[in-house]
Design goal:
The complex is a heterodimer of chains A (about 375) and B (about 80).
Chain A: H1 10-23, E1 28-32, H2 35-43, H3 46-49, E2 54-58, H4 63-66, H5 69-79, E3 84-88, H6 102-107, E4 112-114, H7 118-127, E5 132-139, H8 144-157, E6 162-169, H9 171-180, E7 188-192, H10 193-199, H11 204-211, E8 215-218, H12 222-237, E9 243-245, H13 257-266, E10 267-274, E11 278-287, H14 296-299, H15 318-322, H16 354-361
Parallel strand pairs in A: 1-2, 1-7, 3-4, 3-5, 5-6, 7-8, 8-9
Antiparallel strand pairs in A: 6-11, 10-11
Helix pairs in contact in A: 1-12, 2-16, 7-8, 8-13
Chain B: E1 5-14, E2 18-24, E3 27-32, E4 44-48, E5 51-55, H1 58-73
Antiparallel strand pairs in B: 1-2, 1-4, 2-3, 4-5
Classes of the chains: A alpha/beta (about 375), B alpha+beta (about 80).
Chain lengths: ~375, ~80
């Protein structure tokens, strides 16, 4: 077993689609909160397999998309400093800040480097003792343990030229924020499997109970996603609102205990602004007080107060897309004034953004 | 962003930080194994941004496949 091809089979996908159709008697809206799942849904055309009563909505599951413009502004300002090497994941390069992006910062002489892992940035810091290596730490709970370990290791090694510019976000507060909206369309959620790989499932229990919504922990392959939808529909049709794990091959109820402990050691929960949504209380991670010296915003004296960043607008409705109020294709700018080459909003920038995924795979529909 | 790929551990180096090589269908990469202390050569782990974040449970994977086989048998 290689744990990939087994979950991409045509027969299994169609069997699940038939099972979903048999189980469905009413209209249901199910939201995934994971850019990887959004991308797979668009890429494999999974919505085409579902009965017309079942609508998939794409939530704020792409950390690249929800990173606020002011974080990009900070990264661009740091990259302009001669002593700084700004390290980032590749998909952050084209995300628009208030003015410009990291790609233009690099083109105008900034030392911006794409890394695959926080450990690569740490290795750069070891090899460049005369430079300041700043890692732009974006991501959900899945990515936080790696970033935490890099900081922990930097402190152990006494590396004084490594720091993080942190814009970490957490999934459960975003789900709760969407559910608090009285005009919400969402009936059930697919919880992001890899976030739960780290965090387990306990955080979702109070949300499922309080808002009476089923939450099904779901994987990323097409068959995984259809299975998540199937289990969610079965709960909805049966009047149940439970947390269910449809991704047990990697998600344990308690998550990854070691990874969670490292996140708790290095990070602390904080308020975070989400691009297109606004501030959500206790929805992000920042460095814990004991690790403040590794906070790039402290080290370089960046503005601490929330700023009114200039959101590129031009009729962009990505905020409504992110909370499941509209589908990407309902935005008048979609595919005309807003394309992956010239994005108006961040959901069109990252390949895991709902708009970019629809543009790439579903323009004709 | 949270993309994670299952791969097979080829070897393990028990150092200051537990690391090792993981094979993804023949392509090997150096991966941090600190968060999967029980996993050894031959085991499958889920790798995200250079870190193994979980060991894949073969027993649970088989359960899912069997459930799917049952569905394929129903109302085909």
């Amino acid at each position: 077993m290689k744990y990939v091809d087994e979950y991409r089979g045509n027969d299994a996908a169609h069997a699940l689609a038939r099972a979903i159709a048999r189980a469905t008697t009413r209209s249901w809206c199910i939201m995934e909160v994971c850019g990887g799942q959004t991308h797979a849904i668009a890429r494999f055309g999974l919505e085409e397999l579902l009965p017309p009563e079942v609508t998939l909505l794409h939530g704020p599951g792409c950390p690249v998309c929800v990173t606020p413009a002011e974080t990009l502004d900070d990264a661009i300002a740091l990259a302009a400093r001669p002593e700084v090497v700004l390290c980032t994941y590749g998909d952050m390069l084209r995300v628009p800040g208030s003015i410009g992006d990291l790609r233009t910062a690099k083109a105008t002489g900034g030392d911006v480097r794409v890394v695959y892992s926080a450990m690569d940035a740490l290795a750069l810091a070891r090899g460049l003792p005369d430079r300041q290596v700043v890692f732009l730490a974006v991501g959900f709970e899945t990515t936080a343990p790696g970033h935490a370990l890099a900081v922990y290791q930097a402190r152990r090694e006494g590396l004084s030229n490594f720091s993080l510019l942190v814009a970490h976000v957490l999934v459960p507060p975003a789900i709760a924020a969407i559910l608090q909206d009285e005009e919400r369309r969402v009936d059930g959620f697919l919880a992001a499997g890899h976030v739960c790989t780290i965090m387990g499932t306990a955080e979702y229990e109070p949300i499922a109970r309080r808002y009476r919504v089923p939450i099904v922990v779901t994987g990323f392959e097409p068959v995984d996603i259809l299975q998540g939808v199937y289990r969610c529909v079965r709960q909805l049709e049966g009047g149940r609102a439970e947390v269910e794990n449809a991704y047990a091959r990697v998600v344990r109820d308690g998550g990854n205990v070691r990874a969670r402990a490292m996140v708790q050691e290095v990070f602390a929960v904080t308020e975070r602004r989400w691009r297109g949504i606004g501030a959500i209380a206790a929805s992000g991670l920042g460095l814990a007080p004991a690790y403040r010296e590794f906070d790039a915003s402290v080290r370089f004296g960046l503005p601490q107060a929330p700023r009114a960043s200039v959101e590129i607008d031009g009729g962009c409705l990505s905020g409504l897309v992110l909370v499941g109020k509209i589908k990407p294709t309902a935005c008048p700018a979609f595919g005309t004034r807003c394309t992956p080459d010239r994005p108006l909003g961040a959901t069109m920038v990252s390949t895991e953004g709902a708009c970019a995924a629809y543009y790439r795979y579903r323009r004709s529909s | 962003m949270c993309l994670a790929v299952p791969g097979e551990i080829v070897d393990v180096v028990e150092g200051d930080l537990r690391t090792g090589r993981v094979s993804f269908g023949g392509v090997t990469k150096q991966v941090c194994l600190a968060y999967v202390p029980e996993a050894g050569p031959g085991d499958y782990v889920l790798v995200h941004a250079g870190f193994a974040i979980a060991q894949v449970s073969e027993a649970h994977a088989r359960e899912t496949i069997e459930e799917l086989s049952r569905l394929e048998g129903e109302g085909a």
